[in-house]
Amino acid sequence: MPLGLSWSSEMGGKAKVVGVKRVKEGMPEEEWDESMLLPGDIIEGVAPVVADADEDSATFTSAKGRSELSSLLGRLGRQSGSVWVKVRRGDAGFLLRARVAPHRSSTLHRRYTLCADRDDRHVAMLADLTMDRCAELQEMSRKVVNIDFGAFSMKKGIKYDWKKKVGTYLPDRQSTVISSILFMPLPDEHKVEAVMTRSMAWFSAAVSSGAPLIFVNIQTEQIIVSDQTASSSEGQCYISWYKQQSSKPNIEMVQGIRLWFLPGIAEVPVILELNLGETRFGMDIKRTEEGFICINSVTRGLAADRAGVRKLYREASKAGHLVLISRLDGRSLIPSEVSAKGLIHCCDHNDIKERLAAAMEQMEEVHLHIMAWPDQKSSTSIPTTMGPSTLLPPSTRKSRTASSNEPDESS
């Protein structure tokens, strides 16, 4: 079946055709797709599905009205449960595979209709419709299944070397470049606007405190709550306030807010290396109220100072910014979720200390990523930054590097 069907608005006329008036209640609209008969479809002919034969060899029979088509479907249904249906949507004609289904009604006459080949819930209600009415229904169906005007087929698939592209075009192989945090609704928040307000308060507070975050987007997000989640006190908060209809009675849905942001204008990679005999990296860290990990002080002469962190810290203090660590050895330290109790889920402070202690014991390097802020000047002894500003075509990136006074990574 061709994708991206053309839907015409010039289907005027009072001539009657056999078309799909509606889809029987039982299948949600969001589950409809182009492979099913949709409201407004004009039935131009039907043919039985024959084993070991394709649709090109089928012999189609047309019907002048709904009653005639019902009788035809009754005969074909006795031969084969499945049929080919020649359908017209606007200017496009194509074939669909469907199954014959009895149309249960209060009349004494037995009637037949069509249902989706792969889903018994999608039953088409046929009727004698004018061309104008078919055009109206087709427009509704186009919006429901989101079919683009005159788009080309998207069946073609091409191979892509994802591993190579990630390694070449992302500044860091473990970088997602963008971050997000999900806010769950509190028990007394019955509208999504309340959750959105709270998420923006968190973001504004973080920026006001000196976190160099850059707002990207905000969106609603459906969250599934099962019986297992409901067994916890947090899940009980959801269940008690959010009761919605579901085909599975033990599943509930709540609506949260996901806030997308950049961890600074870029991420500065920093490598901490211990010298023989050193027992600490020379930096103290603390957690901010919003859940970020912040460098609180840097000791002169130790690994953090040699890596350039002390210069960053001094410059950030003058500019009113915090020195936030976005990742430690590739693992994110950024808060990821706010629970229904209002608790911010973030990395365990003890886990960070244990990782640093283990690195000191084994004399291993520690790789940090620091969130860069606007107008950051310190760059001596610090490798090339990474972030959205570095996601440029290779030639552009190369020319910019050549014109910069910063040393390259090999120096």
Automatic annotation (TrEMBL):
Region (Disordered): 377-411
Biased composition (Polar residues): 377-388
Protein name, entry field: Uncharacterized protein LOC105056499 isoform X1
Organism: Elaeis guineensis var. tenera
Lineage, opening ranks: Eukaryota, Viridiplantae, Streptophyta, Embryophyta, Tracheophyta
